[in-house]
């Protein structure tokens, strides 16, 4: 009963402000204010205010919100544990020397020649031992651009 009275008073005040605004020749603003001021009365007439008041003051509804919060907390806990377990499994696999488990969404390995146990990776010669021919292509690019 109190909610309906408050909503009616808010609507009446809004319609009064809309009338004053229309008197000042600001008709579009007045119509917008009138539209906003009719919303509380419309909510009362549809029963939404009564439903909201019944929900807000119902211990059963608040217990339901508590159950929903507990459910959300359990989902978050399971996700955190799964995340930790996945990281721990990857660290244990790295310590054992075995390959880490790969998720199904991981990209495929790059194709190419696989390095065997006896092969050494090719290393670039040190910068001090580079020959003057190494920079010929760079010089050509700089000349092409007029530098």
Structure, explained:
The protein is an all-alpha fold and 147 residues long. It is 67% helix and 0% strand. It has helices at residues 2-23, 27-46, 48-56, 59-96, 136-144. α1 (2-23) runs antiparallel to α2 (27-46). The longest helix is centred in the middle third of the chain and has 38 residues, at 59-96. The termini are far apart.
Keywords for this entry:
147 residues, mainly alpha, 5 helices
Count of discrete alpha- or pi-helical segments spanning 4 or more residues: 5
N→C terminal distance: 85 Å
What radius of gyration results from the CA coordinates?
A: 37 Å
User: Which strand-content bin applies to the residues?
Assistant: under 5%
**Largest sheet features:** none
- Low confidence ranges: none
Spell out the helices and strands N to C: HHHHH
Portion of residues within helices:
55-70%
Rounded mean pLDDT score: 81
Oligomer kind: single chain
Structural class: mainly alpha
Describe the global form.
flat
Number of strands: 0
Helix and strand layout, with pairings?
Elements (H helix, E strand, L loop, with lengths): L1 H22 L3 H20 L1 H9 L2 H38 L39 H9 L3
Give me a quick take on this structure:
The protein is mainly α.
């Amino acid at each position: 009963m109190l909610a309906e009275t408050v909503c009616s008073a808010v609507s009446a005040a809004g319609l009064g402000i809309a009338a004053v605004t229309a008197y000042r020749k600001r008709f579009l603003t007045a119509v917008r204010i009138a539209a906003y001021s009719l919303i509380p009365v419309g909510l009362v007439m549809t029963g939404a205010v009564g439903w909201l008041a019944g929900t807000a003051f119902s211990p059963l509804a608040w217990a339901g919100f508590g159950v929903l919060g507990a459910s959300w907390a359990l989902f978050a806990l399971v996700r955190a544990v799964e995340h930790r377990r996945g990281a721990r499994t990857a660290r244990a696999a790295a310590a054992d020397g075995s390959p880490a488990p790969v998720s199904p969404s991981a990209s495929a390995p790059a194709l190419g020649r696989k390095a065997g146990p006896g092969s050494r990776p090719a290393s670039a010669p040190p910068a001090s031992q580079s020959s003057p021919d190494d920079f010929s292509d760079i010089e050509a690019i700089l000349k092409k651009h007029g530098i």
